[in-house]
Every structure is written in C-alpha cells, then in structure tokens.
Design brief:
Elements: H1 8-11, H2 17-20, H3 24-34, E1 42-45, E2 58-59, H4 64-76, E3 82-86, H5 91-101, E4 109-113, H6 119-130, E5 136-140, H7 145-158, E6 166-170, H8 176-186, E7 194-196, H9 203-216, E8 223-225, H10 233-245, E9 251-253, H11 262-272, E10 281-283, H12 291-301, E11 309-311, H13 321-331, H14 337-341, E12 349-351, H15 355-366, H16 370-381, H17 397-409, H18 414-417, H19 420-491
Helix pairs in contact: 4-5, 5-6, 6-7, 7-8, 8-9, 9-10, 10-11, 11-12, 12-13, 13-15, 15-16, 17-19
C-alpha cells in the first residue's frame, strides 16, 4: 500500500480498473465510471454481503486507497447523477473519496443514511459547496446532534447556487432550535419545492422558523411533510398564514402530531378556504380530531376547489352524527338544484370515511370534470327540473336546456340515462304551457309602456303651448305699452 499521498493525475493515464478494485464486480462498475458510461448514472455503497446480483450501481470498497481512486474518477465523471452513502463507511475511507468527488459537477442527488454527529457533513462540505447542480439532498436516520446540525447548516448555506429543490431530513431527531438554524440556510434556496421533515421534533419553535422561511423565501414549495414532529395548536397557527402564501403547495402532511386539537384544525380550515389554496392532498392520520374540528374543516372545504385527498385515518369514525351529515351535505347538498350544483365536486378520497360518505365520493371520482360531476348529481336527485325561473328568457333558453340535457346524457349511467328523453319533453312542455302567460303579461307591459309614452308626449305638447301663450302675452303687453306711449305724445 502506498505510504504517502497518491498523485492521481500522474498515474490516471496508465492505471487500470483491475489495479484498483478489490473484486470483479467493483472493477466492472469502476471501468464504466472511468469510461463515462451514460448508463452508469448512480453510485451506491454497500457491504459485500449485501450486494445484489442485479445491481449495476453498487460498489463495495475494501480500503481507503480504492475509495481514493474511485473518488478521483467520480470527480472526473459527467454522467453520475445519484450518490448514496450509508453509515458503515468509516471516516478514513470517506475522506479520500470525498476529496476527489468534490470536483464532480454532475451529481444532482445526494443521499446519506444512518450517520451520527457532524463528521460526514464536515467531510462532504466541499462537495456540497462546489456542486452547483445539486438539486436533491436526503438524510435518513442520521442522529446529527448539535454538531451535525451545525455542519448541515454550514453545508446548505455554503451552496450559494441556490439549486436545491428537494431537502429530506427524516428521522434525524432534529429539534426546534436546531431546525431554526437549518431554516436560515434553506432560505438560500428559493427554488425549494419539496421539504420532508417527518420523524423529527421541530415543535413550536421549528414551525415559527419554518413559517418565516415559507413567507419570504420558499414560496415555490409544493410538498411539505411534517409527519410526527411534535406539533401543537400554536405550531399550526404559526404555520397557516405562511402556508397561505405558498400558492403552489399541493401536498401537506400533518399526520401523527397528537397534540393538535380542534383549535389547530380551526386554524387549518382558514387555509382551506383561502382563495390562494391549491392543496390536492392533506394528511391528518393519527391525530386527535373531534366534532368541532371536523365541522370547521367541512366549513373550510365548502369554499375549497382544489383538495382531492383527505386522510383522516381511523380518527374520524368516532365523530357525531351531525358531523357525518355535514360531510355528506358538503359532497351532495340536495336542498335545491343550485345547492347541488355548488356542492363539493373535487374531493375524491377521504381515508377512514364512513360508508355513506364513501358512496358520495365515488360520484366525484366518476366524472371527468367538476362540471360533469355537477350535472350527474343534479340529474340523479332532481328528477323534474323546474323551468319557470327561466321563462323571462323567453324561448331563447329552451334550446340551451335541451342541449344541456343532451350533453348530460353522454356522462350518465344507464339507469339515469333512460330518463333523459322524458326530461326533455318535460322541459318543452313547461315552456309551451308557461309561455302564453308570459306572453300576455309581456304584451300588457308593452301596451302600458306605449300609453305612458303618449302621456309624456301630450305633457310635452301642453308645456310647449303654455310657453307659446306666455310669449304671446308678453308681445301683447309690449304692443299695448307702445300704443299708450304714442297716444300720450299726440295729446301733448
């Protein structure tokens, strides 16, 4: 084994993969990396005993020398996009690898697993800083502790390109104060779209820092996972205004935060009814939610046009009957045609929902568009559509009504479709029966308007005559005065 540092540049031209690798499988993968094989787009490390025969990307290093050479050629490579580093690799093996890989510009996804403390991030800090194309960073089951979180903050903050789109820090035992520092570093990444934090304990303080991040920096966020993070009502209340600022947020996971009560769910309802809300998926599995919380969420969903998946888990099965009724009315309000049309046609799945609600969700899933679902609900419940409110449109509305029924016919099930011809005839009959009355009333109103017009014309002519009479009287007075003046002069 070499006693001093290896001059990789001087030896790279003559060394072979077989001279470096500890076994044939490693040599085959290293050769592909040296040749810049586009198919070799990922590099995973694992112990020899865990190597999968079908894996083309798994490398099982035996010593630091082998890792140093691998790092050198990975640094030169332009095809590797994914790098996965597990905890079994010792620091003295990782260091020579990371010195070489720090020059790589093609790796866009870095995943680390099972590390403790900050040594790994201290070693890989230069790679994270230099790689302007890094878009995904994943850390799972890494007990970073205070030192590791400090090194993570420095590493993320040093990545000045702001290229990160996904940051996943799962089951890493990060507390609120530690995440507050990490959030400051994440503010350097305005293109952040996916933030996964499940299995930590960021609590109130972490949520307040996260709210600041979402309010001013990470406004493009699409996925936020806060599953099992020790959140309570105060944390939710701090988050909601910031979440309303994320107009691209489509998925929010608040599962397994048992300290959130109905107070927190009332605050969340404000997000659902916000005109900026574009959530498609909301998870609330493993939480406590009572009748008041369900009613608040139903109220928020009445104004929501985006949410498709709502995951309650089994918690919603214990709510009172009025909550079940409210959920049913939210999805299918049959009190009037207009109320049915304005029901929620967007929700498709409520996990843990009751049978009566599930049957209504099936209707929402059966339509291609919300307009089609609205048609289906109206025609399923309102067997005879009342045409009288449309008589004021005269016969112009009748073709529209017939066309609406024809379009609805194409999306209905067979049982409902059979009634469409009868409904068309009913609409025509209502117009034929009702239009004469409408015509008579309309004609009388026209005649009344004509009479009022004649009255106005007479009043105008009368006013004109009065003005003419006043003018004649004025002229008569002038003539009389002139006559008296002339006669007075003659008498003198």
């Amino acid at each position: 084994m070499d006693a001093g540092p290896i001059n990789y540049e001087a030896l790279a031209g003559s060394i072979r993969a077989e001279d470096i690798a500890s076994d044939d499988e490693n040599a085959a993968l290293l050769r592909r990396i040296m040749n810049n094989d586009p198919a070799a787009d990922a590099l995973h490390f694992c112990p020899v005993e865990e190597r999968e025969d079908e894996s083309d990307h798994c490398y099982c290093p035996a010593n630091a020398r082998e890792m140093g050479w691998l790092g050198y050629f990975v640094g030169k490579n332009t095809c590797i996009e994914h790098l996965y580093v597990p905890q079994y690799l010792a620091n003295d093996v990782l260091q020579p690898f990371c010195r070489g890989v720090s020059k790589n510009k093609s790796i866009s996804s870095l995943s680390v697993y099972g590390f403790e403390g900050g040594d790994l991030l201290r070693i890989m800090g230069l790679f994270i800083k230099n790689n302007c194309g890094l878009t995904h960073f994943h850390a799972d089951e890494c007990n970073f502790g205070a030192d590791g979180c400090r090194q993570l903050t420095l590493a993320l903050g040093s990545c000045t390109s702001g290229s990160l789109k996904t940051v996943s820090l799962t089951n890493c035992e990060i507390n609120g104060e530690q995440f507050a520092d990490i959030a400051v570093a994440l503010s350097m990444h305005p293109n952040l779209e996916n933030l996964e934090l499940y299995g930590n304990n960021i609590g109130r303080n972490g949520c307040k820092a996260l709210a600041t991040l979402l309010q001013f920096s990470a406004t493009k966020l699409r996925f936020l996972d806060l599953d099992n993070n020790g959140l309570d009502d105060v944390a939710v209340e701090a988050l909601v205004p910031a979440l309303a600022n994320c107009e691209k947020l489509v998925s929010l996971d608040l599962a397994n935060n048992a300290s959130i009560t109905d107070t927190g769910w009332r605050a969340l309802a404000g997000l659902l009814e916000s005109p900026n809300c574009c959530l498609n998926d909301l998870s609330m599995r493993g939480v406590h939610i009572g009748d008041e919380g369900v009613m608040a969420l139903v109220s928020g969903l009445a104004r929501n046009q985006s949410l498709q998946i709502l995951s309650f888990g089994n918690t919603v099965n214990n709510v009172a009957g009025q909550c079940r009724t409210a959920l049913s009315t939210l999805l299918y309000d049959t009190s009037s045609v207009n109320a049915t049309f304005l029901s929620n046609h967007t929700l498709r799945h409520i996990s843990g929902s009751m049978n009566e609600v599930e049957s209504l969700l099936a209707i929402n899933r059966g339509g291609a568009t919300k307009k089609a679902i609205g048609m289906l609900k109206i025609l399923k419940h309102h067997e005879d559509l009342d045409m009288r409110p449309f008589f004021e449109w005269d016969l112009k509305f009748l073709p529209l009504a017939i066309d609406w029924l024809a379009r609805a016919e194409a999306i209905l099930d067979d049982a409902t479709r059979r009634n469409i011809p009868a409904r068309k005839l009913s609409a025509i009959y209502q117009f034929v029966r009702g239009m004469p009355l409408v015509y008579v009333e309309s004609r009388l109103r026209v005649q009344l308007g004509e009479i009022r017009g004649k009255e106005l014309k007479i009043e105008q002519e009368q006013l004109k005559l009065e003005m003419q009479m006043q003018e004649l009287e004025r002229r008569r007075r002038e003539v009389k005065e002139s006559k008296q003046s002339v006669m007075a002069r003659l008498s003198n």
